Amino acid sequence: MPSHTTSHSSAGINLQGASNFRDIGGYRSQDGRRVRYGQVFRSDHLAGLTDEDLKELQRLGVRHSLDFRGQAECQATPYAIPGVQRLALSIEPTVITRMQALIGQGLVPTTEETVELMRETYRDFVNKNAATFGRFLKHLLQEPTPQVFHCTAGKDRTGFAAALLLSGLGVDRATIDYDYLLTNQRYRRDPRLEGVGHPHVMQVLWQVQPEFLDAAFDAVDSQHGGVSNYLQGAIGLSSQELTALQELLLER
Fold it and tell me: Can you tell me the distance from the alpha carbon of 93 to that of 18, in angstroms, rounded to the nearest whole number?
């Protein structure tokens, strides 16, 4: 029985200005340990937080925000939160660039072609952005205080980062998929961020599908020899750092 059926935590923390904010704590690793609550949070962007939301972040003790957004995204929705240090871990949203190039040629991708563009984006996470995701995991070790990581919608860059972290903590794939797909229940789409596009295309771009994350894990398995080799290879964690991450974030 998948561990999320008995230990899911991501019913979420209800913030007015960030719909996809949730604690990754509560999931069980395959050796039976539980991911600690109150240490690592995932979210959509934090530029719309209300005064009450900021009080909640303060109550949670969040000291760092790890921001995967690209340069234009950060300029469009900047934020500064008192007592929270922001670290830029920029990964540009290449799927938007590819989509704009197609539209510029007068081409409207089908739903299937749009899904494949998203799959390619996730393969790029694995093969082109490993160093950035490595910085993310190492920062959790270097600053062992409550942290939140996010992108714009908290679904793709954030979704892969969460999957990678939970994999490193020994959480099984069924539970990782469960956490990943919660975005479709929680995230409130914002037309101001989405831009203009054909409805069938936007529906794919602003939700998550199992096929997206599957593409990433398939690349990890076929090109890097599995998650453990990937974490200690392209991502750059030593076996000692991986063990330290588990000791930090798993209950004994």
Answer: 20
> What total of structural domains would you count in the chain?
1
Residues 195-231: tens digit of each pLDDT: 667 888 888 888 999 999 999 999 999 999 999 999 9
| Residue 40: C-alpha distances to residues 71, 183, 196 (Å) | 24, 17, 34
DSSP 27: P
Which residues are marked as active site?
151
What digits encode the pLDDT tens for the residues 131-148? 999 999 999 999 999 999
Q: Backbone phi, then psi, for 47, in 5-degree steps?
A: -75, -15
Q: Is the dihedral of CA 160, 221, 243, 135 positive or negative?
A: negative
Instruction: Quote the domain boundaries for residue 71.
Output: 4-249
Element (H, E) at 208: none
Looking up residue 185, the CATH number of its domain turns out to be 3.90.190.10
